[in-house]
Amino acid sequence: MAVKGLDIFKLTPKTNCKECGFPTCMAFSMKAATGGVPIEKCPYISEESKELLSEATAPPMKSIKVGAGDAQATLGGETVLFRHEKTLVNKNLFAIELSDAMSDADVDAACAKLQKVNYERIGEMMFVEVVAVRFASDAAKFAALVKKVAECGKIPMIVTVDAEVAKAAVAGAGAGAIIMGATKDNAAAMVEVAKAADAVLGVSADSIEALHDLVEEIEKLGYKNLVLNVGETSVKEAYANAVDIRTAAIKGNDRSFGYPSVVFVNKLAAGNTNLQIALASAFVLRYGSIIVMEEMDFNAALPLFGLRQNIFTDPQKPMRVEPKVYEFNKPTGKDPVLVTVDFALSYFVVAGEIERSKVPAYLAIPDAGGYSVLTAWAAGKFGSTVIANFIKEADVASLTTSRKLILPGKVAVLQGDLAELLPEWEVIVGPNEAMQLPKFLRDMQA
Amino acid sequence: MPYKKAEQKFSGKINVCEIGVGDAAISIGGENSLPFLGTEGFKTAVGIAISDVTDEWSDCFTTLYGDDLKNPAAFAKAAVEKSGADFLLIKLESADPNGADNSVENCVATAVAVEAAINVPLVVEGCKNAEKDAKLLEKVAQALEGKNVVLFSAVEDNYKTIGAAGGMAYGQKVSAESAVDINLAKQLNILLTQLGVKSKDIIMDVGTAAAGYGFEYVASTMDRIRLAALGQNDEALQMPIITNISNEAWGVKEAVSTIEDAPEWGDQEARGIGMEVTTASACVVGGSNAIIVRHPESAKAIKALVAGIIG
Hints:
The complex is a heterodimer.
Chain A: H1 5-11, H2 25-33, H3 47-57, E1 63-66, E2 73-76, E3 93-99, H4 104-116, E4 118-121, E5 124-127, E6 130-134, H5 139-151, E7 155-159, H6 163-170, E8 178-182, H7 187-197, E9 200-203, H8 208-220, E10 226-229, H9 235-250, E11 261-264, H10 265-268, H11 273-285, E12 290-293, H12 298-311, E13 325-328, E14 337-339, H13 344-357, E15 361-364, H14 373-378, H15 384-393, E16 404-407, H16 415-421, E17 426-429, H17 437-445
Parallel strand pairs in A: 3-6, 3-12, 6-7, 7-8, 8-9, 9-10, 10-11, 11-12, 14-15, 14-16, 16-17
Antiparallel strand pairs in A: 1-2, 4-5, 13-15
Chain B: E1 16-19, E2 26-29, E3 45-51, H1 59-65, H2 72-83, E4 87-91, H3 104-117, E5 122-125, H4 130-143, E6 150-154, H5 159-169, E7 173-177, H6 182-195, E8 202-205, H7 215-231, E9 242-244, H8 246-249, H9 253-256, H10 268-286, E10 290-293, H11 296-310
Parallel strand pairs in B: 3-4, 3-10, 4-5, 5-6, 6-7, 7-8, 9-10
Antiparallel strand pairs in B: 1-2
Helix pairs in contact in B: 2-3, 2-11, 3-4, 4-5, 5-6, 7-10, 10-11
C-alpha cells in the first residue's frame, strides 16, 4: 500500500531537529514516502510505526545480489517500468547454459568461447556474467562442472529440481550462486538448501497464478532471496509473464512479484540462434533480469551488450566517451585530424562514418562536457580555445605530419579563431552531417 | 493473496492503416495497448529492403542475390521470395544529387518495375535529399496511383509537396520522418493533417539507431509516443510507426568490418544479421507496427519473434 508523505509526517515529532539530515520533518517525510530515504533515519518515530512504515515504503522491487567478489552483481531494484520515467538501475545479466550431459571436450570448447568474448566498450567490460549448468544424470560430474564455472569467475546457476543434487553442487559454487530451483513439489526442501548456502533461489511454476502462490508459500517459509522463472515452454507466455510480473510489482505494488526474472531464451528457441538473439533483445527492454542463451559468440554479443549498455544508462546523464585522440582505418602518421565532441552519440555517428569511408584519419575528442556539438558550443564547452588547448596538450602534431584539422560543419564559426590559435594548422570546415563524411574524406584524399 | 493482474487501462487507440491493394493488402496498427499486451491489433509487419545502389552493401548480399542486385525488379522478387516478408521497401538511392544523381524519370521507372514484379505492398524510399525527394516521391505517387504505396518519407522541408501529392492527389500513404524526438514527430503529424492529409493516411517514421549506438533515445522516444497516444489519447501521435533499421544496422563497424579487419569477431554476415535482429526486435517491442530489415534471415527471425509473442 502506497504511503503518502503526510501520513509519515504525522508520525514524526515535527520538531525539525534535522538529525535525519533533512531541513524539516516535512521534507524528510516526502522523501521517505518515495522510498528515497529509509524511515529509520528518523530517531524519533516509534518502533511500531517504523515497522509498519518500512514495509510500506520499501521499494516495490527487491534488489537481489548474485555472485561473490569481483563477479558480484545486483539484479532488480527497479522503481519504474520505462527508463524515461526516471532510470533503470540494474542492468540485466547474460548467461549461457552447460550440462553434465556434455562431453568434456564440448564443455572445454564452450568455456573457451566464453573467455574469448570479453572486451571493453565505452569504459565497461562486456562478458557473459552467468553460466547455467543444467543437471542431466551424473551428480558428481554436475557438481564438478558447477565448481569449475565458479572458479572461472562466472556466477553459477544450478539448474535442477532435485534438492539433494542442488545441495551437493552448491557446496562448491561459492557465495551468491543461483539455484534454479524451486517448484511446487520441492519448495520446502529447496528453501532449506538455499538458506543453508545463502544462495539465490529460482522459482518456477506452470502458470503465473501458480507462480504467485508458490512465491507466497516460499516467503512464508522465511526466504525472500528469490528470482522468478518467466516460463520455458512458450514465447507468448514468457513475454506476457515477464511484463505482467514487473507491472504487478511496480504498478500493482504486489511485493510477491517484486523479484528479478530469469528467461531461458535457449529453451524458447532451441537451435535457432537468430531467434534467440531476437528474444534476448526483446527481454533486455522488457524486464528480463537474467537472460540465458545457448551460446554467446560475437554475432550475438556485440549487438546485445551494446543494446544493454544503451538501455541501462541514466537518462539524466549523457553517455560520454573518453577525451583522447582516436585512430581509424590504421593511420600511418600522415593522415588528417577530425574534431568532434565527447557525447557518445556524436562520437559513434562520426566514428561510424569515418570507418565507412575507409580513409585513414585521427579523431580528436576534447572534454566538451558530454554534450552534442551545438549544445557544447552554446555552453562554451566546445569553443576554439577548448579545441586548440586539446590539440596542443594531446600533442596531436607529433602523431601526424598532416596539418589538416577538420571541424564539424555546425561550428564553422570557429574557423577563424581556431586558425589564429593554431597557426601551423589548416583549419577546414567539414560537412554539417556525419553521413556526408565519407564523400568529404574521399574527395579530400583524392 | 492470489495474483491479480495489474491492468494498464488505456483510452487511446492506434489508427489502422492499410497499405497495398487487393489480396496483397496488409493493415498495420489498430492496437489499444502497449505492444503485444492487448487483445487486439498489434502484429508487426516485416518488410525487406532493397536499393538501386548496392555498391556499399556487404559481400554476403552479392552471394545471396548474384546478378539480381543490379536489376531492381528481379532483386525485389528474389528478396520477397527469400525472406517471406510482408512488404518490400525500394530505396531509390541513385537519385541522390551528391551521388549518381539519376533522373526522376529513371527512378520512377524503377519504382514502377519493382511494384509490378512483386505481390506484396510497396514502400518507396527516396534518397534522403529533401529537395530531390519532393520531386521524386511526387512523381512516384503519380505513377503508382491506385497501388496504395507508402512514400518514405516526408520531412519538415518537403512535407507540403509529398503530403499534397501523395496523401491527397494520388491517394498514397505518407510516412512522416522525424529524428528520434516525440515533439518533432507530433509537430510533423500536425503539419501534415493541417495541410489536409487524413491522419489515417499517415505513418510515423520516428527514426532509429543501431543497437549500442544511442538506441536508448529510440527506445524512450517510442515508449513516450505510445504512452502519449494510448494513455493521454493524443490523436496527433496515434499513427502506426514504421521503422527502417537496415541502413543503421548494416552501417556500424560491427557489421561493416570484414573478417580480415576483425578476425576475432568471426563471420561478417552473422554479425550483420545479429546487429539487425537485435535492433529490429528492440523496435518491435517498443511499438514499431512495420519494421524493415535487409537480410532475409533477419526478416525470418523477426517474423518468428512476432509470431511467437502473439502465440
